[in-house]
Every structure is written in C-alpha cells, then in structure tokens.
Amino acid sequence: MKEKKLAEQDVDENQESIYYQDTYKETGFIDKKKITNLDLTYSFIIGVLGGIISSLIPFSLLIKVWYPFTGGTQLVSGHHVIWASIVYGLTKKKYNIFLTMLSKGLIEFLLGDPWGIIIIFVNFMEAFFLVQGFFLMEKLGEGETKLGWGIAGGLGNFFQAPFFWIINQRWYLHWSLWALAFIFAFISGIFIVGILGRAIKNYLIKAGVPTTF
Amino acid sequence: METRNFYILIASVIVGMVIFWLFLFAVVELDADLFQDPNSITIQGEGVNREVTISISQLKSDKYEQYIDKTFHIMNSFETEYDVIYSGVSLWSILVAEDLIDQDSSELTFQFWARDLYHSPKPLNLSIAEDNSGMVIIAYEEDGAPLFGEGPLRSVIDQSVIPDGEYSSQYSVQMLSKIIINLK
User: Fold this and answer.
1) Which residue from B106, B115, B105 is spatially nearest to B155, judged by alpha carbons?
2) Per mean pLDDT, which range of A4-8, A52-56, B45-49, B59-63 is the poorest?
C-alpha cells in the first residue's frame, strides 16, 4: 500500500515536472522567431568577447613569420566572423548573427580600430553574407553538415577581402596577390568560421550550454 | 568513399594547386627574393651605376644624414591625417654618400618595395628626395622604439612633399626590402 502511494507520488511529481517544463517552454520560448533573453545574452557576450579578442590579439603574426606575401594574413581573418557562427549554432536564428556582429563591431570601434566607423559596416557586411551562406546551404540540404557550414563560413568571410583591397585602392598590386588574398579569405572562412565554429558549437552543446532552438 | 566526399577532395586539390601555381607565378613575375636578409635594403635599377645592399647598422652610421625623432605628417586614402614620430636616414644622403647616381635627379624615379611584394603605387621623381632630403627617409625607429611588425625598416614620406592626389601612407612602405631607381 505504502509502495503504491509512493509510486503514485512519483508519477505526480513527474507529471508536475513535465508540466512546469512545458510551462517554462511556453512562457520562455513562446515563439521561436522572437528574440529571447538567451539570444541577446549569447549574441552580446560572445560579440563583445569577439570584439576584444579580434582587436587586441595580433593573429596575423601567425602567418607573417612563414608566408612572405601581402594578403597572406587573410588566412587567419576568419577569427573575425567565427563568433557569429558559434552564436548561430547555439540559437539557430539568423538575426543573432547580426546582433553578434553589431556588438563586435561596436567594441572594435570603441577600441580604436583604424577603420573607425567603417568597421561597424564591415561587421554588418560579414554578417549579411554569413546569413546568405547559411540560407543557401539550407536550401541545398547542407544546413547542418560540415560542408554546408564550411561554404557558409567561406561566403561570410570572403567579401571583406575585396572590400578592404578596393577601399585601400591597391590597384597597383599584381593581380596574383589579389587572387591569393581572396582565395585565402575564402579558405579561412571555410576552416575557421565554418568547420571550427561548428566544432566549438557542438562542444558547447555537449557541455550542456542551453540552446534556444 | 562517397561520391560527395570525392568531389570535396577533388575541389580541395584543385584549390591547392591554384594556390601553389599562383604563389610560384607571383615569385617569378615579381622577382621576389624569399631569402633576403630582412635587416638590410637593396638599392637597384637602371638609374644607379651599381647595386648595393646596406644593413641597418650601416644605415645608422654617421656616413648618412640621420633624422632623430622627427615628426612626419601622414595622410591615408580616406584622407585621414595624423602625425608619427620616426627616426631614420635620408634616402638622398644614401645615394650621395654611395655615389650611386650619374644623372640629374629630375631624370630619375624611385619606388619602394616591401618583402611581402607590396610596393608604393607609382615611381616618384627623385628630385623630391633631393629637394626635401629630410622628408623622404628610411625609418628604423618609431617613437624611439625599433620597428617591430612593420619593420625593421620602412620608408616614410611626409605628405607635404607628395604630389597632389597621392597619399603618403601608400608610399610609407612597411618591411622595406628594396628601392628601385629607374630612368624617368
């Protein structure tokens, strides 16, 4: 009799916990298209982190010691965009890519980026093309694969290279240097933004970081 | 192996080969010296009577005209202007001390090249360096400290002596490796 009562109590507690869980989900995530507190938290914390790290750590030194030509530092340029792909992986909402890159751009601007206010526009541009990349890969059925993330990351990181080279008016440099720089930007996007971003996202989810999708 | 993965492999190999050949092409086409000592510069071209290579320690000697902690006014392609303090040696004094040129400076041009194959946008008339000896220098220090990432040597030209429509930042070449003096 006592055991039966305990069993009924267990069932009630389970139902209660399911009820509360459902209730929590209903109130916390009423509509997946709406911005949740967690979305904002991830976007701004990771964006600020990215802004500080990308601004203050000279990643280009990793390249300059072994690759001799101008444009080679594009090989590590993906560190500017990886933050957005991590947030996208945790939230699966494309506008969070914009929020992350906005906060990152603001931090870079406030830290005295040599490009000034233009750096915010550049971050938006990278966000836009990363969103387009993920959108395109979803349409092609590669939304969650390494290939899909790689190409989306490549697209997200690629366009800043021609933008900077054009705005710097480097017309007088040899075309092979232009081509190498742009290829490096795309490759950096594939490996750092796409594949590394996806791996970090997977590790974070495995570690128990809550997602919002 | 899945067909999809095979295509990815093929695409990767093609991209790798493109990079390899583009790199080789750039080395050959731009005459890159991958093993040049970064602590020296070479002065060459059809405008000089011989090619010379000068080390930093030689550049710092009293043989050449030195400018210590001189403020240079720089403008970049956004037309943002700023001042930077450099120490370096006058380009014209090097040419004179080494007796490298036989023609009049107005008949010659100079262009800076970096180790990473960046170069100043166009050759400038050498008379600019002669008439403004202290405004066209090979810098080895910035704010009293040796140049690190952008060095050990870089060219610096003050905006005031740059032709109209040109920006001094594009002529201030980091990681300077050679100066080409050519006939106009």
Assistant:
1) B115
2) A4-8
- Report the residue of chain A nearest B22, measured CA to CA: A176
User: Which residues 6+ apart lie within 8 Å of A171 measured at CB?
Assistant: B121
The verdict on A176 touching B (C-beta cutoff 8 Å) is: yes
The answer for residues whose C-beta is within 8 angstroms of residue A132's C-beta and 6 or more apart is A155
CATH of domain A34-206: 1.10.1760
* Residue A26 pLDDT class (50, 70, 90 cuts): very low
- Calculate how close chain A gets to B147, using CA atoms only, in Å: 14
Q: What ipTM does this complex have?
A: 0.75
The answer to whether A65 faces chain B, any CB pair under 8 Å, is no
Question: Side chain identity at A80, as an amino acid letter?
Answer: H
Residue A105 Cα to chain centre, angstroms: 13
Average pLDDT over residues A111-127: 91
Nearest by CB to residue A69, choosing from B116, B149, B170, is B116
Q: In angstroms, what separates the C-alpha of B63 from chain A's closest C-alpha?
A: 31
Q: Residue B4's pLDDT band (boundaries 50, 70, 90)?
A: confident
A171 vs chain B: nearest CA distance in angstroms? 8
With CA atoms as reference, the chain B residue closest to A142 would be B4
pTM > 0.90:
no
Q: How many residues does the structure list for chain A?
A: 213
